[in-house]
Every structure is written in C-alpha cells, then in structure tokens.
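Input sequence (238 aa), recorded before submission:
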Amino acid sequence: MTFTILGRDPETGELGIAVATYSLAVGATCPRILPGIAVATAQASTNPAIAEEIMELLEDGNDPLETFIRALANDEHPEFRQVAVMLPDGDTLVHSGINIKPISGHLNGDNCTAVGNFLTNDEVLSAMVAGFQIPTTENKAYLTLANRLLSALHSGKEAGGQSGIDGLHLNERSACLIVGTPGEKFPVDIRIDASEDAITDLRSAYEKYSPMHQFYLHRAENPTNLPSQDDWVKSLDS
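Predicted structure, token format:
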C-alpha cells in the first residue's frame, strides 16, 4: 500500500525520491539517499536495514548489483520486501518479493522509476511516470526535480493510488520528499508523518520550505552575516 517515485536530474546531478502510503511516518523508514551515489527505498513490509546496508556498501565503492544482491540475501524475509535503487547515471535495480500483494511492480521512465505495491489498478505506475516526465500542477509546468517528484505522486493518487487487503481504496496518511544535490551539506527532506491527505500536505510543506533551503545551507556553512529568516524571505520578494 505504497507508491514511490525515484528520479534524477542529469543536468544538476540531483537524485530524489517521493513516497506516499497508508502507513504512518514513511519518511523515517523507507527512503535513503547519498547525494551523488544513490537513492533507494525499502518498502512493502519495510525493513530500513536493507536500504541502509545498500548505502553503506555503495559508499565504500562496492559494485551496485553485488551490493543489491548482498543486502537482500542478508535479510531474512526478502519475499515480503520491495526494494529499489537509482544510481546517478539513471541505472536502476528493483526487487519485488513473491509475497507482496498485487497490484505491485515497477515501471521505468526517462530519469525516473515508479515502484508500488497494493495499488488500486495497473494505471498508477504509468500515471506516475507520465506525471514525472510532463509535470503539471493546475496546468502549470514545474521543471525542478522536486516538483517532478511531487507531480508524480499527485498523478499516482489521481490514477487510483493504493488499496487495502480488501481491495478498497486507502488514503495517503504519510508522505515524504527527499532531494539531494552533490556538495550540499544536507538534502531537501520534507515529511508528513500523520495526515488524512498527505500528498497535498507534502506539496504545501515543500512550497513553504523551498525558499529557505539555500538560507539553511548558508547558515550551516557560515552564519556570520546572514539576515534573519524573515528578512531573507523579504529579500526574495523584492
């Protein structure tokens, strides 16, 4: 009962992921990212240790495919897991265990991969890929990676989203967005942990945070001459 989009921007080097699900606090368990190295999700019957091990091994320079196989082999219940990894060149690795409930699977697009389980119908993944590749919100195009990822989630929701064991539609109670840029001290990392409309709330939270991301990066690097947060926002509007 989760749908996820992994994506990259080949021009900026950004990697990112957006996840929506019925489970609570998905941002704490499923996604992992190392900017410039990989972005991953471990979902379905989630075991965060899988994605964490993948990241550790990749950071140490191990082969991606061997890393992927090793991390799954170290898990006691891979048949219940859905795991996906995207590398900076756009290559992806996906595992969907045999005990994951349908409709489940993944679909690759240009610079993106949609992954999901307990989906309402077969159109959800294709809608997500389309939403990423031609992102629209109220007929206005957004070209940044973050907005493409959010557009993909919205498209997946509009196509039917997720369902429960009984096949009935489930709303999205948590969602997250992470976008990492090589060289930045920390990524954009927005989470909605408990909501009745998590995708809408995620978009709202991102739009509030987005103007401040550079401010927080500057503050981490050298806070000496930074204006206040309110003055920063005013300077953007002037």
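Checked by second reader. The chain has a mean pLDDT of 94.
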